[in-house]
Amino acid sequence: MAEAYYKQHWIDIEPERHEAYDQILAFHPAMEPLIRPLELKPGLSVLDVGSGPGHTTFELARRVGSEGRVTGVDINADFIAKSSARGQSQRLDVEFVHSGFPPLPFPDSAFDRVFCKNVLEYVDSAADTVAEMARVAAPDGIVVATDSDWDMIALDIGEEARELSDRVLAAAKAIAIKEPRIGRKLRGIFLGAGLSDVKVEIMAGADVAGRSLPMLKASFARYARDSGRVGADEVDRWLRMVEAAIIGGRYLFVLPQFVVRGIKS
């Protein structure tokens, strides 16, 4: 593996994970609080850092309209190709750039708004990436990042599954996440990047219906298997317990999202 696992598993994504991410990373109304701090309006230029399959990027484009300009940047070449094709089919004028980061491949003060969703936990340096986000933001521009805090995760699938569930989650987190506490650290990172009027919101909706199951299968289970810290048979048994808890109405999953906004002085 050329890079550390937390980065390489986003560079190399097999087709079945692409299919899962299309579902997991789709934009839906519940995500409105995550983009509201951008204060989007027609005519703005926006950068989506770590744009993935582009679904949220397209929503940003709809909000700034034909007079605006939206750019997505991502480390995965297939995401870029698929997003570009999807944008053309939807007749949305969005540019997608293939690049790792930091640094970001854009000039100083190039965007009115800079957005980053669930990416900073995976980069080599969250502080350097946010500093880059601040650099490419225009004066008085708004920078918004939203990210998880993996040490606050809550998964309840029954007491009999607790020990195995804790081991699976710990194994997944050990190799797949560069900074598991990125959520609580974001405010300090924003301040360290020189951003002003930094505000923090925490979104922590509880999934009791199993909406998070595709993420557990495509991400958590895969990471745990790849870690070698738990056996593949144990991960399969854990997934069966998850599915049984969902069917039995005993499932609870919460992964708090920190939404942090700052202003470029």
Tell me briefly what this model is.
This protein has a single domain (5-263), classed as 3-Layer(aba) Sandwich (Rossmann fold), CATH 3.40.50.
Layout of helices and strands, plus pairs?
Elements: H1 5-11, H2 15-24, H3 32-35, E1 45-49, H4 55-64, E2 69-74, H5 77-89, E3 94-98, E4 111-117, H6 126-136, E5 137-148, E6 154-156, H7 162-176, H8 182-192, E7 196-203, H9 213-227, H10 232-247, E8 252-254, E9 257-263
Parallel strand pairs: 1-2, 1-4, 2-3, 4-5
Antiparallel strand pairs: 5-9, 6-8, 7-9
Overall geometry comes to globular
What is the mean pLDDT? 96
**Main sheet: which strands, in order across?**
3-2-1-4-5-9-7
Task: Just name the CATH architecture.
Answer: 3-Layer(aba) Sandwich
- Count structural domains: 1
Helical proportion? 40-55%
User: Which fold does the CATH topology refer to?
Assistant: Rossmann fold
Largest sheet: 7 strands, mixed
